[in-house]
Amino acid sequence: GCFECCIKCLGGIPYASLIATILLYAGVALFCGCGHEALSGTVNILQTYFEMTRSAGDVIDAFTLIDIFKYVIYGVAAAFFVYGILLMVEGFFTTGAIKDLYGDFKITTCGRCVSAWFIMLTYIFMLAWLGVTAFTSLPVYMYFNLWTICRNATVVDGANLCLDLRQYGIVTIGEEKKVCTSSESFVKMCDSNELNMTFHLFIVALAGAGAAVIAMV
């Protein structure tokens, strides 16, 4: 009766694909949401404490790159929302329990090609997300250095530590944009919640990218 029908339906659910889809959505959501807010916080930090301004004209500066990354995040969120649904549907129709629901049937050549295409595409996206994870670790490393300088400045008396943006390629060699512990702006930056929040947002975004890689696997 109804109980047997429910058992058959539950048996037809591809639980591995379901868990992978949930993990994929969670990872992409964390990466896109936290990454977007972390980039916005980075813009405020550069403008407020490093006194950087947007370049006039079509010059590609750090702010232009941040805007490009934001648009990339919008595209990634939309694309993987659709791709997660497609993978889930494909997982339902390739589970072995479907045969018990609809009877024995032969696998068509088209079905084999579709499954092989999804597998190949997922492996390609997995490699791409490995690159995204490695790239996301760069701002985490930069903010960790900044957080360490703020921490050491309060521990070591009389230490004059400086952070130069030229070390990270954010500005050109000829443009000097640095903040030292002896300056008032550095003290305000270390005491602000904006620095701590941006740092932790990048950490969560990195964790989200790693979760997406695991979901792809």
TrEMBL record:
GO terms for biological process: neuron projection development. It is found in: Cell projection, Dendritic spine; Membrane. Signal peptide: none annotated. The keyword Transmembrane applies. It comes from the Eukaryota. The chain crosses the membrane at residues 71-93, 114-138, 197-216. Keywords: Membrane, Transmembrane, Transmembrane helix. PROSITE patterns: MYELIN_PLP_1 (PS00575), MYELIN_PLP_2 (PS01004). One of its GO terms (cellular component) is dendritic spine. PANTHER family: MYELIN PROTEOLIPID (PTHR11683), NEURONAL MEMBRANE GLYCOPROTEIN M6-A (PTHR11683:SF4). Interacts with OPRM1. Interacts with palmitoyltransferase ZDHHC17/HIP14; the interaction leads to palmitoylation of GPM6A. This is Neuronal membrane glycoprotein M6-a. It comes from Irena cyanogastra. The gene is Gpm6a.
